[in-house]
TrEMBL record, chain C:
Organism expressing this protein natively: Dromaius novaehollandiae (Emu)
Similarity comment: Belongs to the retinoblastoma protein (RB) family.
Cell compartment(s), UniProt: Nucleus
Interval of the full protein contained in this chain: 935 to 968 of 1009
Protein name: RBL1 protein
Length: 109, 149, 34
């Protein structure tokens, strides 16, 4: 009897989990559509550049490259390997299929 | 008993999947809030400045930020149509996406870190679809479920 | 285990989660330590 009760209980739990998962899938679709609507509002989704420079003022004393590319652009980073001169080489490949890629050097004297 | 064991395994798999989907939903919620907040702020800026910002003072979304040491030598090859770039760095770098940059600039009101004033919480709630407001200010169950502190 | 050794990590603009970038940053960091 105990095993049968356990079985019934598990079946009910799995049914609940299935409903929960479906609800999350639906909510994710709503949100993705909502974000797409915001992004499609092309007049206003640019990001004020000065704030990226603001990142520099946040003690980020680095060189910053801003890469602006069409949705779907692929970025590929190979596993770092040793170059001929014994120095490690770090690489970034960018490939777009729907529009040009723009790269901005943000804070280099 | 065998059937019970199979269902236990199935139950764990589903719980794991739901956990991942909640994390994704939280990420999307924060993204939505940050983007909408950005759009509202851009509109306010344009009203104050009576017009759009100077062309070279903004960057279109989506974008990525690569940061590396000032000493790093960067070698860059670009295809003539600008559809392909190859960068070689002689030092390490880090890459962050616009969502990360927007968060660091406080565009998602610090929700991801649980440092959000009541005022900002109200604003954040107004930026998400009605059906999802519960995750921002609703009952504890929903908030906890997205582990939004 | 994947048949061919993985030689690179990929990220798609507006298509991959931020986690993919965290994985890339970790790989670069580990590459440095190695």
């Amino acid at each position: 009897k105990e095993v049968v009760d356990r079985l019934r209980y598990l079946e009910a739990e799995i049914e609940d989990l299935e409903l929960k998962e479906k609800e999350l899938d639906q909510q994710k679709l709503w949100l993705q559509q909502s974000i797409k609507n915001v992004m499609d509002d092309s007049t206003n989704h640019q990001y004020p550049f000065k704030h990226i420079k603001g990142l520099c003022n946040h003690g980020v004393r680095d060189t910053l490259l801003a890469i602006q590319a069409p949705c779907g652009t692929q970025l590929e980073v190979p596993i770092p390997e040793m170059g001929q001169n014994g120095q490690k080489k770090y690489q970034i490949n960018l490939k777009s299929s729907s529009g040009p890629i723009h790269v901005l050097l943000i804070n280099k004297e | 008993a065998q059937e019970c064991q199979n269902l236990e395994i199935e139950k764990q798999r589903r719980i794991e999947r739901i956990k991942q989907k909640r994390a994704q939903l939280q990420e999307l919620l924060l993204q939505q809030i940050a983007f909408k907040n950005l759009v509202q702020r851009n509109q306010q800026n344009e009203q104050q400045n009576q017009g759009p910002p100077a062309l070279n003072s903004t960057i279109q979304l989506p974008f990525l930020i690569v940061n590396t040491s000032k000493k790093t030598v960067i070698d860059c090859s670009i295809s003539s149509d600008k559809f392909e770039y190859l960068f070689n760095f002689d030092n390490t770098f880090e890459i962050h996406d616009d969502s990360e940059v927007l968060k660091r600039m406080g565009m998602s009101f610090g929700l991801e870190a649980g440092k959000c004033s009541a005022e900002d919480l109200r604003t954040a709630k107004s930026l998400v679809p009605k059906a999802l407001e519960g995750y921002i200010t609703g009952n504890r169950g929903q908030k906890e479920s997205l582990n939004l502190p | 285990a994947c048949l061919t050794p993985r030689t690179a990590l990929l990220y798609k603009f507006n298509g991959s989660p931020s986690k993919s970038l965290k994985d890339i940053n970790n790989m670069i960091k580990q590459g440095e330590q190695r």
